[in-house]
Write a structure and sequence with these properties.
Keywords: FAD, Flavoprotein, Oxidoreductase. Belongs to the acyl-CoA dehydrogenase family. Residues 9-115 form the Acyl-CoA dehydrogenase/oxidase N-terminal domain. By secondary structure, this protein is an alpha+beta fold. Helices cover 51% and strands 15% of the residues. The strands form 4 sheets. It has a 4-stranded antiparallel β-sheet, with no helix packed on it. α1 (10-37) runs parallel beside α4 and α4 runs antiparallel to α5 (83-102). The longest helix is centred in the C-terminal third of the chain and has 29 residues, at 303-331. It binds flavin-adenine dinucleotide. Residues 94, 127-130, 135-136, 162-164, 207, 210, 215, 383, 386-388, 390, 392-393, 396 line the site of flavin-adenine dinucleotide.
């Protein structure tokens, strides 16, 4: 019988402690500055590259942890340090995963190293899917990719929005429509190599939180990329489109909104980010409650404060367990029959919003100022219920999985 354990291995503990050290010594002390500057923290990314945290090797090692806990542990520790800086460090990974998931070995070998650059010249990458009229409704995407057979080139045109690292990236991974009849089944992903003419940054957004992470529109005006930039290659795309057309004809598959469920396996990673932010705020609140004195005793002596902390910690632990379950399921190939990935992201992100608000309350007036980090953590936490599928979309995915019905 398989052994059940919730004990981390010595190796996992070692990695976790190493990451925690980097988060505590390098990320957290820089957090307030980069939040105010609202700029990509290049020197911190470079530090992460120097110690080996900003590299494909590092993520690959965590990804291949057979328990599935490598990635969530890494995310929790880095985002415990600071969400904006951590997203600047792991944002490239989102684009890299796009290439790993769909690219050929040659594409992986060519483009992923360019996404990270090297220690002396670090680069970032962007994953561009969302559009002004296609957020939750991915199937409404309009950016077109048209094949120019004579030149063996693809021509991309359209406007992407909300792209993390958009416009400042070396490599952009762009999702575009190759067959508008097929909804999200007619989408394909393309590499746009560094310096390609026609790609430009549109508006850079001024955000509520995670302000160290760059978020911008990406405008594509007749961007020509070689045929080899289609991820997976043309033969594979043609086969996939033919299959989708067959199914569309026979009506055997609902095409619209199919992409909503495709992130099931990656959502626990976002849940883990939320756990990191929630835990950071909870720890600040616990410490403050033990040291702040009112009415002649520490405020934690009041049940009204202590019980809040008890609830905060209980919810954080519950969120982590959901995240770990989903990550373990993804790694061990279990089927997400009840949308367990979405459950973990939904619960962890809502927990982060709630817990960071409670932390502000426990710190009183100080919690409301930028002298203390919980105000920033609360602003940062609001992103988790929005990106990688909003809380409403997670509920939709869960409800559909549970009922087997096309709940709308
Ligand atoms: C900081 C940041 C970084 C991002 N990074 C990236 C990135 O790197 N790459 C990328 O491609 N995208 C990125 N995104 C985009 C992100 O994934 C989208 O913002 C998200 O999917 C929601 O889309 P939307 O903003 O268009 O909201 P909308 O889809 O317009 O939703 C608005 C509201 O309506 C609700 N709603 C919509 N449909 C339904 C429904 N059927 N039932 C119930 N409620 C519904 C939503 O839940 C939400 O509350 C980022 C966004 C932000 C803010």
């Amino acid at each position: 019988m398989a052994e059940f354990t919730m004990e981390l291995s010595d190796e996992q503990k070692e990695v976790r402690d190493w990451l925690h050290g980097f988060a505590a010594e390098v990320i957290r002390p820089a957090a307030a500055e980069w939040d105010e500057r609202e700029e990509t923290p290049w020197p911190v990314i470079q530090e992460a590259a120097k110690v080996g945290i900003y590299s494909l090797d590092f993520y690959a090692q965590q990804f291949f942890d057979p328990t599935g806990l490598g990635i969530p542990m890494a995310m929790e520790e880095l985002f415990w340090g600071d969400a904006g800086i951590a997203l600047s460090i792991v944002g490239t990974g989102l684009a890299a995963v796009g290439v790993l998931a769909n690219g050929t070995e040659e594409q992986i070998g060519t483009w992923i190293p360019q996404m990270y650059g090297d220690v002396n010249d670090v680069k970032v990458a962007a994953f561009c899917s969302s559009e002004p009229d296609a957020g939750s409704d991915v199937a409404s995407m309009r950016t077109r990719a048209v094949y120019d057979e004579a030149k063996d080139e693809w021509v991309l045109s359209g406007t992407k929005t909300w792209a993390t690292n958009g416009g400042i990236a070396s490599v952009h991974v762009v999702v575009a429509v190759v067959d508008p009849e097929l909804g999200s089944k007619g989408h394909a992903s393309f590499i746009v190599p560094p310096g390609t003419p026609g790609l430009s940054q549109g508006q850079k957004f001024k955000k509520h939180g995670i302000r160290a992470s760059h978020t911008a529109e990406v405008v594509l005006e007749d961007v020509r990329v070689p045929g080899s930039c289609l991820l997976g290659g043309k033969d594979k795309l043609d086969e996939r489109l033919a299959r989708a057309r067959e199914r569309a004809k026979s009506g055997s598959e609902r095409l619209k909104n199919a992409a909503m469920a495709t992130f099931e396996a990656s959502r626990p990673a976002v849940g883990a980010m939320a756990v990191g932010t929630a835990r950071a705020a909870y720890e600040e609140a616990l410490e403050y409650a033990k040291t702040r004195t009112q009415f002649g005793r520490p405020i934690i002596d009041n049940q009204g404060v202590a019980f809040q902390l008890a609830d905060m910690r209980t919810q954080i632990d519950a969120a982590r367990l959901l995240v770990w379950r989903a990550s373990w399921m993804a790694t061990t190939g279990k089927k997400f029959e009840s949308a367990e990935g979405s459950m973990s992201k939904l619960f962890a992100s809502e927990t982060a919003k709630k817990v960071t608000a409670q932390a502000i309350q426990i710190l009183g007036g100080n919690g409301y100022t930028r002298e203390y980090p919980v105000e920033r953590m609360h602003r940062d936490a609001a992103i988790y219920t929005i990106f990688e599928g909003t809380s409403e979309i997670q509920r939709l995915v869960i409800a559909r999985a549970l009922s087997g019905l096309p709940i709308r």
